[in-house]
């Protein structure tokens, strides 16, 4: 919120089935045609939507004297009182925060005369405005209101019979624009595209259409290759034309896992590119959840599931545990150093400077969690699960009880997190502090951002080697550096990955028993949900341990793991059990996740992922740019999949 000094009277602020092999060739060609056709439609529709939605706000002309940005509105405060008033504001999203000054409105120049000042106010969350008399600091009135983007409002402060009181009323001078309309348009575009692809896929799989496309799209050379290298086209094999995906030949590569990973990755790329500059596509300021807070833990969870399946497969092939451990260690080191390079992009301008080198990061945390969980799994994983006694007392809980040593290690790690968080003395801060600092907690602990987690990072790494602009800086106005991928939170990320490992154990132990797998997923989701409800008291800020992404709190882990088990259950049922969905397009980036993540970070500032917008204060143009950039990475991952190019470390 911003304002300028008022003038004397009024100031202003700015603020087919012809043969088995031929069928395979046809299916591949048709899938490629459908995917390319879909990609072209996405880009064309996005280009058409951008100018359309960008001009929607223009149906509401602005006052020439006010230049509004995104998520801002104009508020004119009219003072009919014979005394100067001080206006303060407080966001309802800011827990236990101090009121912040908005500005001063001079007293009316005379009886019946009004003094007015224009301000810009935020429209992201409801605000409480407080008007005080400057003479005795007496509260005159409070008004709670949720302003709309680019709306124009007036707040009138008038005298009542009692001169110590004032009547405050809010008037809407101009209705706000619907800033969420671009999201609706984008959803309709992608939903329409999905329907078109589904219809097109169904039509293209019809035998007459498939034969026609095969005759048109293939030459005599292709027919010769089929006869000489792939076998006679007259030989037929059974094909499951009713299913959009081929049957799984190995439990170690479930399509649902890659689909879930790809879904998380696509959302991560979208929010990292800006998410249309909507607040709910950005990380929460402190306690609570937004869309951006969901995806990284889900990625960690799926990594744990993949560790379980890959380790079990390697052990069955006879690979030694020692050799597997060194491979895990090498991969972790690679991930860590790649992460350091990505989050310190100034290396393009010369040697890395140690003075401001940020050490923690997303890939660094993935490396630590991967190393810890893979090491634990190598310690307890069974070479074979075929000879387990069915009459043993622990058989019903085999996927859990057989790995109790690893569970003890994980419980010990989370206990360490709890002890350090709630018992470690932090200078000038209350023990067990979980707040954001700044103006939170009524401004009592401005330099205590993150409590023990922030203190440990600053002590071990130094203030200049951690993230300098935490999400709490905007709303809570915190000034201390704080890293959401810091040291203490890495312990919790191991727990998150280990819960994903548990999902992998369930899949391994109940191979092909879909109902048992889904029942177990549901049970784990239910138990973790109950734990979250207890820890948070079903509230955002009032619980014992609030859900907090910055801290990677215990309730954050249990809540996101609950969501992950439920999401994996749904995707597993739809993709691997019923085969209603192939997992496309999310399956493709899920098969090349490291490449997509690293690539989107490196090329973020380059065309076609970013371009100069005609209006940088338009949600519609930002949303279009971010959706196009994300869609391009999906198309790139599809092309790499078809070319069988996968970057693995």
Provide a descriptive summary of the structure in words.
The protein is of the alpha+beta class and 649 residues long. The protein has 18 helices and 9 strands. Helix content is 47%, strand content 10%. The strands form 2 sheets. It has a 5-stranded mixed β-sheet, with no helix packed on it. It has a 4-stranded antiparallel β-sheet with strand order 4-3-6-7, with no helix packed on it. A hairpin with a 4-residue loop joins β6 and β7 (138-145). α1 runs antiparallel to α2, α5 (255-272) crosses α15 (554-577) and α14 (514-536) runs antiparallel to α15 (554-577). The protein is globular, with a radius of gyration of 29 Å. It starts with 9 loop residues before the first strand and ends in a 7-residue tail after the last helix.
What share of the residues does DSSP label as strand, in percent? 5-15%
Q: Order of SSEs, N→C?
A: EHEEEEEEEEHHHHHHHHHHHHHHHHH
Rounded to the nearest angstrom, the distance between the terminal CA atoms is 47 Å
Q: Extract low-pLDDT stretches.
A: 1-30, 39-64, 220-252
Helix content: 40-55%
Query: Order of strands side by side in the largest beta sheet?
Result: 1-5-2-8-9
Shape estimate? globular
The Rg value, from CA coordinates, equals: 29 Å
Structural class: alpha+beta
pLDDT averaged over residues? 83
Largest sheet: 5 strands, mixed
DSSP strand count: 9
The number of distinct helices, counting runs of at least 4 residues, comes to 18
Oligomeric composition of the shown chains = single chain
């Amino acid at each position: 919120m911003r304002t300028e000094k008022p003038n004397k009277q009024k100031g202003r602020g700015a603020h087919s089935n012809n043969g088995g092999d031929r069928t395979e060739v046809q299916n591949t060609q048709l899938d490629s045609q459908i995917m390319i056709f879909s990609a072209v439609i996405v880009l064309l529709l996005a280009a058409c939507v951008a100018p359309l939605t960008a001009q929607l706000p223009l149906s509401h002309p602005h006052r020439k004297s006010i230049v509004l940005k995104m998520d801002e509105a104009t508020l004119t405060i009219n003072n009919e009182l014979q005394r100067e008033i001080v206006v303060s504001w407080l966001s309802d999203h800011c827990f236990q925060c101090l009121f912040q000054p908005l500005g001063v409105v001079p007293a009316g120049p005379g009886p019946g005369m009004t003094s007015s000042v224009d301000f810009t106010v935020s429209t992201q969350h409801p605000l409480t405005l407080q008007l005080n008399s400057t003479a005795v600091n007496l509260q005159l009135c409070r008004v709670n209101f949720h302003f709309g983007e680019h709306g124009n409002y007036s707040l009138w402060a008038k005298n009542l019979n009692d001169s110590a009181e004032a009547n405050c009323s809010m008037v809407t001078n101009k209705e706000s624009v619907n800033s969420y309309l671009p999201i609706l348009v984008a959803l309709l575009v992608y939903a329409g595209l999905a329907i078109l692809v589904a219809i097109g896929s169904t039509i293209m799989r019809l035998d007459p259409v498939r034969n026609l496309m095969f005759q048109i799209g293939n030459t005599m050379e292709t027919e010769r290759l089929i006869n000489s290298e792939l076998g006679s086209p007259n030989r037929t094999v059974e094909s499951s034309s009713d299913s959009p995906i081929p049957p799984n030949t190995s439990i170690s590569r479930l399509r649902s896992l890659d689909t879930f990973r790809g879904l998380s990755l696509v959302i991560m790329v979208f929010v990292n590119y800006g998410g249309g500059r909507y607040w709910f596509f950005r990380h929460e300021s402190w306690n609570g959840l937004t869309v951006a807070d969901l995806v990284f833990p889900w990625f960690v969870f799926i990594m744990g599931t993949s560790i379980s399946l890959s380790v079990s497969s390697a052990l069955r092939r006879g690979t030694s545990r020692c050799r597997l451990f060194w491979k895990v260690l090498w991969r972790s080191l690679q991930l860590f150093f790649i992460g350091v390079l990505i989050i310190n992009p100034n290396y393009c301008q010369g040697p890395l400077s140690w003075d401001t080198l940020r050490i923690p990061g997303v890939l660094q945390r993935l490396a630590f969690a991967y190393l810890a969980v893979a090491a634990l799994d190598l310690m307890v994983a069974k070479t074979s699960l075929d000879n387990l006694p069915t009459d043993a007392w622990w058989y019903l809980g085999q996927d859990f009880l057989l790995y109790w040593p690893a569970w003890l290690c994980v419980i010990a790690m989370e206990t360490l997190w709890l002890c350090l968080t709630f018992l470690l003395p932090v200078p000038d801060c209350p023990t067990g502090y979980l707040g954001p600092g700044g103006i939170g907690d009524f401004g009592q602990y401005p330099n205590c951002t993150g409590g023990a987690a922030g203190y440990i990072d600053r002590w071990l790494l130094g203030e200049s080697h951690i993230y300098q602009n935490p999400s709490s800086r905007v709303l809570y106005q915190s000034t201390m550096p704080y890293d959401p991928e810091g040291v203490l939170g890495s312990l919790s990320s191991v727990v998150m990955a280990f819960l994903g490992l548990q999902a992998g154990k369930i899949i391994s132990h109940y191979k092909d028993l879909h109902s048992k797998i889904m029942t177990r997923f549901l049970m784990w989701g239910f138990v973790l949900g109950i734990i979250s409800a207890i820890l948070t008291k079903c509230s955002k800020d009032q619980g014992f341990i609030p859900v907090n992404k910055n801290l990677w709190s215990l309730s954050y882990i249990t809540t996101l793991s609950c969501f992950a088990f439920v999401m994996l259950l749904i995707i597993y049922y739809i993709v691997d059990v019923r085969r209603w969905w192939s997992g496309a397009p999310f399956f493709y980036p899920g098969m090349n996740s490291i490449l997509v993540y690293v690539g989107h970070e490196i090329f973020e500032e380059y065309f076609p992922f970013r371009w100069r917008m005609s209006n940088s204060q338009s949600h519609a143009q930002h949303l279009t740019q971010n959706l196009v950039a994300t869609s391009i990475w999906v198309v790139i991952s599809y092309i790499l999949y078809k070319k069988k190019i996968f970057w693995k470390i």
